[in-house]
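Researcher: Good morning. I'm working through a list of sequences from a screen, and I'd like to move beyond sequence-only analysis. For each chain I'm collecting a predicted structure so we can compare shapes side by side. This is the next one on the list. No need for commentary yet; just the structure.
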Amino acid sequence: MVESRHQWKAWLYLSPAIILLLIFTVWPIFNTLRMAFLDGYGNMAAIGGRTFEFGIDNFVKVIDYKDFLLCLKNTAILCVATVPISTILALLIAVALNSIKPLQKTLQTIFFLPYVTNSIAIGMVFAAMFNIVGLRDGGTNAQTWGIINNAIEFFGGEPINWINAGSTYTANIFVMIVYIVWNALPFKILILLGGLQSINKQYYDAAKVDGTRKFRVLTRITVPLLSPMLAYVIITGFIGGFKEYSSIIGIFGDKMSAPGGESLNTMVGFVYDALARDRQGRACAAALILFVIILIVTLINNKFIKKHVHY
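Model: Good morning. Structure tokens for this chain:
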């Protein structure tokens, strides 16, 4: 503990970080709250000298917006579908990696590469993989399929219109789920692999002596001992899932939908759209609604997971 007569030195060393946090974190939070409750707030109008009444009109307009429920539905589908799948896959891959000794570090690096790659760039690659190039005969036949449809044809299936004009909402959502799951794996694998390497090997030695099956070892030893890390990746996964935006831009562009298809816009996309239209008050209101949703989901997850976490 720092002696009282030297505490001023600690505050001095911390002051640059504290000042930056106050300017770029604390103040924007308070400013967001302020603008959310100023009816019809916009930066250009505020610069022009217009005054705004205090109220909840921004929240009413957000909820009454015709595409609000669609944005909420898209966000919920992507979040609920991707978190369980990515967590289970990450657990299985982490267990497999932990069991492999040769080339383990190399494989860890390969699995971690997507985490340090730009999400827009990855989205463009996925768009090329699911794309159809060179439509002809009124858009019914394709001269070139993307690699996914080539693989489907190789195994005797019929090519699917995933993201081009005329594709279905289900196909679009499926592509997004595949991308988000793949993009979420590296971080979860890293966390779970670190947890696996910290588990005392005596548990596994005892199970081996008893002749316990591998599946039972996984469910009765590995998962309970990994429960704190699993709880962490599940909660952060839901938080990240509710903030999905850039992945959709990477695959479908700024229209956030296939040509002529149903919009895949999310709550974060709704916020950016409002900002682009100089409706900062409405954007702040939508951000607060999203914050409340994330908070409620996190509290529910925390309450449920707490019963199954073993420290």
